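Researcher: Quick one. two chains, 540 residues in total.
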Amino acid sequence: MIDVDKLLASAKPIGQEEIRRQIVLPWPEAFRIAIRNVTLRLGRAAITATGVILGIAFLVSVWTANIIQDAMREDRALPALQEQAAAADLDGQVAAMEGELEQPDAQQAETKARQVWLVVMSLLVCGVGITNSMLMSVTERFREIGTMKCLGALDEFIVRLFLIETAVLGFLGALAGAIIGHLVMLVIYMIKVGPSITAKMDWGQMLKYIGLALIVGCIISLLAAVPPAVRAARMPPAAALSTEV
Amino acid sequence: MARFECPKCKEAFETDGLVTVCPKCGADMRDAMKKLAQIQAESARPTLGKDESMTTHEFIVRTKNLKKIYKMGDVEVPALRGVDLDIKRGEYLSIMGPSGSGKSTLFNMVGGLDKPTEGTCFIEEVDMAQLDAFELAWLRCRKIGYIFQTFNLIPVMTALENVTLPMIFAGMGSDEMLERGAFLLDVVGLGDRLHHKPYELSGGQQQRVAVARALANAPAIILADEPTGNLDLHTGKEIIELLKRLNAESETTIISATHDLKMLQKSDRILWIEDGRIVKSARPEELDFASAEFH
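Model:
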């Protein structure tokens, strides 16, 4: 079935004059390969993405709750304050009352600090989760990485492929996480307080937070993916090829 | 025996030239056969694929006192204990040796897949230890074609993508790449399996994809590590035939580790490696292949 004559009859397509042409991996090709790796290893990709989804969902839910609580506080505090001020008709009293409002603010600051702590911890856990998942995914692909290096891939090509892959996963995971976290918190408060709460929310700030969450998701995924990807890329091809997983 | 295609019904069949009518539709094939014979005569000319710049060095691969020691914890395990080897351009070299003899280690050194602990390995008189990562990648991409016992295709890529991957690295244009990839797969008899994934192909078909991939950038050296080890007799034979013809007609140097008698018989020289040293070197005609050594 092998048609040797045909091969030998063909002119050598690569002339020696082209020999100094460089070793390259164009970005479109890199993207194609990386995306294919995501879509064809959906199970593995889903596990990696779940780490991001959970971390970012938590982050966004905390932020959504903050915005809703702010909206509720303004809703209650401001009119009450204005009414009292109007009744007393005294500027000094307003200032004093505003001072009284500082009292719960101190408590709020403590709550905020606790929230920041929770968010940082959850993001750390999410980062460790992605690193672990990436380590697994790199390990099970050692042979593939070794093969690619045999075919002429530079270390940086391998790193590039893995980074594109995690950037895509990180972004999609963060997007899903942001939507899930936001909706869950919103529904909880709508049930607790009533649907009217959505009207008073600061939506501009909410969008900013969601955008920030996407960036955080991508950055965490990339940071988590760098060590395993670099480790894999630096392996001598012989070692990568002989690993049994 | 040669392969013909009927000009009328496109039926492909094999004949030794005596049968001149198509077995399917009965059409006269003499003209078509004459043409093919002419093309074959042309392509078989010894100048094919040769290049002035390629014949400057007599030895394409040389190793000098090559040593490799693996460290397993505190224990040092020597895999190669000083190998001196000269491989001529266009040579078909087979390497034999029991598993653990250092065969694969030698392969990795020659192929630039690992670094020796001591000693040097030259490819076209260039010391591989002197090459930077970029030059080494270039060497692996353009000079050497690898064929593995376990095929090592990229599982998420189709046959065509596997074959074109080294061409991407070599910076070939997209159209040219797809054309050559399809051509090479056609040559190994997989013209109708371009878009199949490795797991959709049989072992023999996978190895043929791997052969097509090894040929992607028309390498000067083909390193084949037990290429027929996982194949059925028929496919193994075809792959041996392909390698032999490449070797004979385009001066591709073939270095293969094998226990396959048919491969050994086709080679120019056979080396035995034992315990990290070359213990014997012989030409196939000096050997008695019926002896117990080969069974």
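The two ends of chain B are 30 Å apart (CA to CA).
Researcher: Thanks, that's what I needed.
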